From TrEMBL:
Organism: Rotaria magnacalcarata
Official protein name in the record: Uncharacterized protein
PANTHER family per record: HOST CELL FACTOR
Molecular function per GO: transcription coactivator activity
A GO biological-process term: chromatin remodeling
Cellular component, GO, one term: histone methyltransferase complex
Keywords tagged on the record: Kelch repeat
Top-level taxon: Eukaryota
Keyword Flavoprotein belongs to the record: no
Lineage, top ranks: Eukaryota, Metazoa, Spiralia, Gnathifera, Rotifera
Length: 61
């Protein structure tokens, strides 16, 4: 029995643009979003600290 459920968080900061064909991963309390199509191919990386609930754009990991 699957007990998973989606929860919408309230975050601050500049959120990444809506996109498709991206990759994302959660490591610890951080969510990383790589690339995607916005409608141009984008190579930006966005990092969300899930404890802080604030979007931050970074050029380094």
């Amino acid at each position: 029995k699957d007990l998973s459920q989606w929860t919408q968080i309230v975050a601050t900061g500049l959120a990444p643009q809506q996109r498709s064909l991206h990759s994302s991963v959660i490591i610890g309390h951080r969510m990383y979003i790589f690339g995607g199509w916005v409608p141009l191919i984008s190579s930006d990386k966005n990092e969300q600290h899930t404890n802080e609930k604030e979007w931050k754009c970074t050029n380094t990991l």
